[in-house]
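User: Methenyltetrahydrofolate synthase domain-containing protein. Structure?
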Amino acid sequence: MRLTSSVRRQALREASLGDVLVMEARAGDVSKQSIRERIWDYMESHNIADFPRPVHHRIPNFKGSYLAGQSIRDLEVFAGTQEVKVDPDKPLEGVRLLALQSRKTLLVPTPRLRTGLFNKIIPPPGATKDILRKCATSQGVRNFSVPVGLDSNVLVDLVVVGSVAVSEKGWRIGKGEGYADLEYAMMVSMGAVHEGTLVVTIVHDCQVVDIPEALLEDHDLTVDYILTPTRVIATGCARPKPTGILWSKVSCEMLTKIPVLRSLREREKRAGTDVTLQAEPGNTQQPAPSTVRRPQDRPQSQAGFRGRSHSSLEGTDTHLAATVCLGNLPYSARVRELKRALQELGAVPLRLTWQGPQHRAILHYTDSAAAQQAASLLQGLRLGDNALRVSLGQQRDT
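Assistant: Predicted structure:
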């Protein structure tokens, strides 16, 4: 079943407006959070959002989500699946119901992974459609499920995730807590997904937007299909999905909160994997900050920059001495390329401010000595065909 033509036209109009809003955001430096806020605001102000509201800080439910989810049965891959993992978000309720009606094994992650990775939904014998519908709700997931252990022989054929924003290229932005990315990485670690496992997301048309590639990080999950109330989009995404847990980005706090993560860490440690955590001795990687953001998105308190905004730092000689400016960046340069080069040279900063339109980046270090050492290491650095210009403090290249 599809939406009526009038609703379809309205959805397409809303999608166009959504694209315009995001393109306006891209006129300056843009972050994942700025895209989230614009999507949430737009869905609320145009009454696209559905219960639970407000949709801010959630995977947003929307009018037409049930029908959008039902269109997954039009995908050839769905017919051949046996085990399907579907996130517990409200807009995915229709997909969970369809999986149960199709007699597939339905796996749903436990909330915030507190009690395990996921549960298997087991409807009562002779369940009617009404009972199956209850099983597909968040309450049903709690009442009609059993936990799945790490040693179970689970092999997921299809993963369905919620999104706040997604691009036609398959690049995805969640609500910012990273659980979908971590869940997929954990499934890789336990052997529950394989190269042929496809990832699908269900969103409203206005959530399909352009996402700058510079915002993507190695741990971000990409999607193969996007289902909206009006379209089925095959992304053809070639960007690799996570190949396992990046322990250097896992915090001790996260490990404390997620028991199953501790179990996987012990398993990988016994197998000889480097499982050094984010803040542990021996971790040479800096915590991954958002490398592209607007000034109002930057934290007001950071090590070495307590209580000052970025703009005020630029007028303070004490802190200017702790910055390095890289100019003459190629037009096609990406943040991840620069980050990789900085890691290889041993010049990783506390924070990196990307100024792509000006073909430069500002690197922030703990003190002037660290900045001077980094500037020395970076002399002669090339990205693509461009030799980068390296300068200390307030000197800037245009």
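The first strand starts at residue 83 and ends at 86. Confidence is low (pLDDT under 50) at residues 286-320, 394-398.
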